[in-house]
Amino acid sequence: MASLKRSLDSDPFAANISSKVYVRSTKSGKVQKIVREVYLRQDIPCSSRLCQSCLKTAPRDAAGRPSPFVLSEAPAGTSVFPQGHYLVPDTNAFLTAMDLFEQSAAFYDVVVLQIVLEELRNRSLPLYNRLISLTKSEDKRFYVFFNEFRLETHVARQEGESVNDRNDRAVRKAVAWYGQHLTRTGAKKVPAVVMLSNDRDNLRKAKQEGIPACSLTEYVKQLKDGEALLDMIPEAEDQDGIKEKRVGAPLYPEYFSMSKMMTGVKNGLLHQGIFNVSPYNYLEGSIRVPAFPKPLLILGRENINRAVDGDLVVVEVLPKDQWKEPSTQVIEEDAITKNENPDAEDAGDLVSQKERKALQEEVKRTHSKTTEGHAQPTARVVGVVKRNWRQYVGHIDQSSISQSSQQGRKQDTVFVIPMDKKIPKIRLRTRQVAELIGKRILVTIDAWDRSSRQPMGHFVRSLGELETKAAETEALLLEYDVQYRPFPKTVLDCLPKEGHDWKVPQSMDDPGWRDREDLRGLLICSIDPIGCQDIDDALHSRPLPNGNIEVGVHIADVSHFVKPNNAMDTEASIRGTTVYLVDKRIDMLPMLLGTDLCSLKPYVERYAFSVLWELSPDADIVNVRFTKSVIKSREAFSYEQAQLRVDDDSQQDELTKSIRTLLALSRKLKQKRMDAGALSLSSPEVKVQMESETSDPIDVKTKVHLDTMSLVEEFMLLANVSVARKIHEAFPQTAILRRHGAPPKTNFDELANQLRVKRGLDFSVESSRALADSLDACVDPNEPFFNTLVRIMATRCMMAAEYFCSGTQAYPDEIYTHFTSPIRRYADLAAHRQLAAAIGYETVDPSSRSRGRLEAVCRNINVRHRNAQLAGRASIAYYVGQALRGKATEEDGFVLKIFSNGFVVIVPRFGIEGLIRLRDLAEPEPAAEYDAETYTLKTTGSRELTVELFQKVRVRVTDQKDETTGKRGVKMELVSVY
Amino acid sequence: MASSQHVLLSPAELAYLHDSLSLTPPIRPDGRSPAQFRPLVAETGILPGTNGSARICFADGTEAIVGVKAEVERTAQRAGDDTVYLEGGEGDEEDVEDGEAREGEDKRKGDSAWVEMTVEIPGLRDDDSGTAFLAAMLSEALLADGEFAKRLWINRRFHWKLYLDIILISPPLSYPLPLLSLTTHLALLSTRLPRLKSEGDEDPFFDDDWAAAPYLFPRTPTTTTTIATTARPPITLLVMAVGNNIIFDPSKEELAVADVALAVSVTGSTAAPHADDAEPEPGRSLRLLSIRTIDPPSRLTPPGVANAANSAYGAAGTQKMLEAATAEVEAVEGVWKAPRGGAKRVVLGALVQKVLERGGVVDEVLDALEGVDLG
Fold first, then answer.
1. What fold is seen in the domain A884-977?
2. Name one GO cellular component term (chain B) (predicted).
C-alpha cells in the first residue's frame, strides 16, 4: 500500500500566506484552537523620512496620499551611535520602564513592533494604553511597524522553539531588516537601528548576529544627562545576578496557582473581590464578596499577604476561632514603622515587634469580651487575580535615609510614603536622594516579592516642592486619575471652524434650524454660582390663558456640537466629567464649547434642548414636551443676585415675576417630594475664599443655602425625571439612567445601634420613607447641628449613586437620569442623544444603542465621577489647611467616630475631620478605658476626660507640619468637652 | 444501504469472476495478490481549525475527509467512590499523598458518550439505516475496549468530548467502510489536545501554545500515561472470501461475487520497551475488536438462467415455472448463482487468523498510515 502526501509547496501563494495557531480558553470554560491566516505584504513602509522606496509603495488613503512618515531623517545620536539612531525596544523594555519612554529628554524615534505591542497588551493593559498614546503623540515620533505582516520580517516559529524565543527572534529580525533597509536608502548619515532589551539571552543572541543592541542601563548611560534617568529603570531588571545572593527566607505565604484559585472561587470555597484597606488602620483590610452580605475582615500583614488597596484578590475564610472584631484602634503605618531601615531587609520576621504589640492589645480586648457575637469572620489573601497598581504620589521618608547618603551619587534605598494612607510604604532605589527630599514625587510599584516586607518601586518623576500649589494640585489630579493634559489636536479639530465667531444662523432655512423651535421671544434667564462660565441651564415661566403655568428648562445643546464617535466625543467619554478644584477647573470639553458656544450666555442666541411643562398652580404636571430650540437668555444671575431681586418688592418687571412664580412652584415641588419620602442627605460643604490677585486662600466659609438654589435644584430634578421617563419609554433596554442603589440594611446597623445607645433614638431603615422619617426625628433641641451630623453619617452608609444602563433589572418607580449639565458630564450628553432620538429629531447612533458600549461608558463615568468628587474634596481640604496656616482657631466640633486610643472630630465650620489620639491629649499618654457598648472613652491619669460619641467638643485647629514626614496637615487639639 | 452500488455485470460475467477468484491462487481482475491493497493517497492537517483531520483518496475514486474537534465537558458526578471533594488549604497535602498511594492503579475512567460520531454519505439522509450502521460500526470499533475513551479523561470532574465528523466527499462507488475507517484512524493519529496546565481536580486550564499540545496518540510512550504501550486507534478492514480464498480490499466487482464479506476491526499496539513482558516481541501485537458480517451484494444479484430454461430462447411457456425452479437449485457451469447460506466456520477461522497475522496485511496498512506526515 502506498501513500502520498500532497505538499503545500506546490501552492504558488504559499510564500505570502502564513498562519498563527493558538489555543483560546474562554470564560465559560471552552477551549478552542484558533487559526489566524496571515497574509504577508511588502508595502508596509518603514516610515523613515530617509526612505524613498517605501514612500512609493506605501498604501494610500482615499485621497491618494500616503500617511506621513514618522521617523526623523536626522535622529539624535548617543555617545556610541553618533550618527543618530532609531530605537527598537522589545516587550520587557516597555514593561519595566515605560516611564523612561515618556521622558521628554530622550527616547525619540522609536519603532514599536507589532509583536511587541501585542505582547504588551497581553501583559498589561494600562501600559499598552500608555504606549498607544505615545504612538499618537506627534512630537515623540513613535512608529508602529507591523513586522508580522511584512514578508521580510515575518518569522515562522521553529520546531521546539518557545513563543518567547520566537518573539525575540522576530524582534531581532526586524531590527536587522531595518538596518539593511536603511543602508539601502543611500543617505549620507544612516542612523543605527538599536534594539533595546533587558533580556540577557536576547542581547547575547543579538551580539552574535551582529545586531546593535543595548540593555536599558547601557543605553541610558550613553545619553547626555543619563544619570538622572537611571533611577527610572526599575529595580528588578539589573538584579538578575543579585537576586541569587539575597535569598532571604520568604516572609509571606506563597500565592495559589491561578487555576486553583479559579476552581476554588467557582466552587464557593474561595472568594474573589476587591481588597480595601481601612483608612484608620493599615493592618486591617476588608473585602466585599458576593457570597456574604457583610464584608470579610483581613487582619495583619501575613493575612493581607502583599495585597494592595484596590487589587482584585482571592481570599479564604479563616476558621472560626480566628474570627475577630474590627479594630477599635487607630494604627498608622508612619507611626509604627517610622524607624524601619529600608536596607535591612533580612530582619527575619515579618511582623515587627511594634506591630506585634499593637496586635496583642487587640487580642486582649477580644478576650476580655464575654459576648462572642461581635466577632466577625476573617479571611486571608491566598492570591491576587489582578493587581490594580497605578502610579502613586508620595514623598521620601526622611527618617529612612542613612546619613552617609545625603551626598554623592551612590544608589540608595529609601522609603516613600504615599499620599494615600491605604497604600503601604514603597521601597525605592535612587541615586538622587538629596534632590528628592522635600519633593512630591511620583513612583510606581514594580513588584512585591515574598521575601520583601515592603513593595519595591521605582521613581517616575518629581512634581515639585512639597506644599507648592502646582505640585500639590498635580499630585491631587494624579492621585484621582484625572485627565488633565491639554486636549490633543485631533479633538480641537472637531470644533466648529468659526471659533468664537460662531453664531446661530440668521436664516431659518439653515440646516441648523431644522426641527428647532424658535423660543427667542421667551423671558429666559439663568441662575448659577458666582463666576460661572459654563452655563448649562436656563429657565423661564409664563402664565397660560387657562390659568396653568408654562415652565421651561433649557439645557445647552451640546450634542449639536459633539457628534458621536469623533475624537472629541471619545475624549469626553474618557474624561467623563469636568473636575472642579478650588482654584482650577479641568474641563470635559474644550473651552470654546464649554464656556462659549454651548454656554447659555445672556444676550446672545444659543442652541438649546428644552423641556417644557404645563404645570397646574399646584405644581402638578399637566403635560410635558421636549424640543430642540433656539433661545436668547435675558440675564445670567448669580444665586445671590437672583435672591436679592426676588426679595426686593420694588422689582416688578416680568423677569422677576417669573422667577417668583418659579420659586413658588419649586417649593410645592419640594414639598411633594418630601411627602413622597425623598431623602435629604448631607455632607459638610465649605467654600474657600481666595484673594483675587494671588488666589491664595484667605478664609473658609460654610456654604449658605439660598432659596434660589433649591429653585434651580427642583426644576433640574423635574427635568431629569421627565427626561428619564421619556428615554426609558423609548429605549427600555438601553436608556442611560441614574440610581441610588438600595444599601444593604446591615450598613446602617452600626449607626442605628449608636443612636439607640447614645440618644435612645429608634432608627428604622425599612424603607426610604422610614429612613427619611427617622432622619427627621433625629433632633437635639439644644444642638441644631446634630441632625446634620446624623445625616452626614447616614450618607456615608448609603451606596454611591451610579449611572447604569436600563434593561431587565428591576428598579424603583421613580426613575431618574442626568440631563441638565451636558457641558460638564458625559452622562448628560448621552441622555441628550437618546432624548433627541426619542423625539424623532435624529436617528439613533449605533453607539448609543449598543448595550455593551453604553455599559462600558457607565462604568467609566461612575469611576470618573467618584474620582472628581474625591479630588474636589481633597482640594478643599488642602486649601483649608493652607488657609489655616499659621493661625490657630478654636472651633466647635463633634465626635464622629471613637476608637480605643483616640477619636475623630468633625468641625462643621471647616468641613474637616481630624483624629485626636490619646497621646495628643497629654504628656505622658493618659490611660484609657474604652467601652464599646456605650461608645465611651474614659481617660485617667495625666488628664481625666470622658469622651462619648456625638459629643460636642471644643477643639483648637492649627496647621502642623510633621517634621519627620514633611507633610502638612490640620491638627486638632482638644480644648474642652462640653 | 446495500453494501455496494449495483454492479452492472451480466450473470455470465459474474460467474466468470467468481470462478477466477475461486482458483488457487485466485486471479483478481486487476492482477493483485489476494492480500494486496490498492494504492491510496493520504494527507493530514487539511482542516486547520480542527484538532486533527485527514483525507484519504482510494484508487477507485472514492475520497473521504474526517475532522476531529474536541471540547471540554464537565463529567456528570455520581455519589460514590469517585465523588470529588474539593479540599481547600491544608487538606491539599493529604490529597497529594493520597494520589501517590494510588499511583499504580489507573484511576482514569472513560465513557462512550464522550465520543460523538457523525457520518455523511452524499445522496443519503443522515438517518438512513446504512449510514447509521456505518457510524455504529466505526464507533463500536473505537470504543470496543474502553481504552480510547480513557484518553479523553482530564480529571475527575472534566473530560474532553470528541466530535468526529466523517464525510465521504465522492459518490459512494464502493462500500465505504474501509475508507472511512482508515481516514478516521489517520485523523485520530493527527489529533492533538491542548496541554493541560492545571493539576488535580481543578477546573482545567490549558497552555495557549498550540505547538505544545500533545498528540492524542503519542508517538513514543509518555511516562505520565499509565498505558504503557503505544496503542493506536483501530482500523476496520473489509475482507471477503470466495470459496476458500481470502481476499483483502475487494473492489466492488469482486465484492459482487463474494461468498462472505466481513468487516473486521483490529487495533495494533507496540509494546513499550520497558513493559513488564518477559520477552518483548518485535512488531506490534494485534487485537481483534469486532467482526461484523456484511451482506455481500452477491446475494442480491439475480441468478443466471440456463439457456434451456430461458423463455427468451423459445422454451415453452408452460414449462417455465418448473424450469425456473430447477435453475434455482442446480449449479450450472458458466451460469451465475447467488451464494446461499452463511460462511463456513473454517473459512471464518482462517480469515481471522489471516487478519491477525504478524507482519501481515494489517501491519502493512498500519505502517503505511504511520508513515503519513502529521502536518
1. OB fold (Dihydrolipoamide Acetyltransferase, E2P) (2.40.50)
2. cytoplasmic exosome (RNase complex)
